[in-house]
Here is the input.
Amino acid sequence: MKFYLQWYARLPSTNTFLKERLAVESNLPSGKVIAAREQTQGRGRLDREWVSSTGENLTFSIFLRGSYDRRKLPAASMAAAVAVAELLEAEGLKPSLKWPNDVLVNGKKICGILSEGISGGVIIGIGLNVNMQNAEHIDQPATSILMEAGKRRDIDELLGKLLKRLSVRLDEWAAGGFFAIRKNWEAKVPAFAKASAGEPDIGKMVTVRDGGTAHKGVLAGFGPDGELLLRADDGTVLSIWAGDLSS
Ligand code: BTN
Here is the structure.
């Protein structure tokens, strides 16, 4: 996969900007990447906002052209999460993945991913905390590479390294969906690694919250497209495609 990177000083949201550009530039190449030094209206999953301080972190979106099956889309974020975790490992950290697509270090969120299906393909938005010095302004436990490793990184250089890894994992996803990245994804999910004190675990009771709805049940595993499988008391298994997972 080849990427065409374009940087902007400030955008409301790189995902929204890409969507708007695609509406007027129908021949935008697959692999177009829009990165912003600052986002003024960064968006997260489940209609949350994504707060990221100017120039300190990576906020960018990738457009991939194609007619992807709706069921295949969630795994695009999971493939991206694998690539981010691999980058962080190379940078000396010990990341873990949390369904559906959070990347955590020491139990705190370091990266969020928001994939959006559009008529001509998919937009994958990635926010990775790099040189953020503290997480006081964020309403959930969050961290950054600087906070974990004590060393600043060059943002542009780091994006170059990340795009190389994304190219490999997104190619795999485009060819084979969740099946193609499943082993690499599971290898970084504590529930599969057995060393998961306090983490949502296979065979244990968990809760998945999606807006006002909370589903409780036993975490039975993940389905063929990366959906979470929750077993209710009566034995029925519910497939869940989005939400916040907690133990
Ligand atoms: C989440 O964990 O809730 C997903 C956060 C996704 C944030 C990224 S930053 C770049 C891209 N543009 C956005 O507005 N959101 C995504």
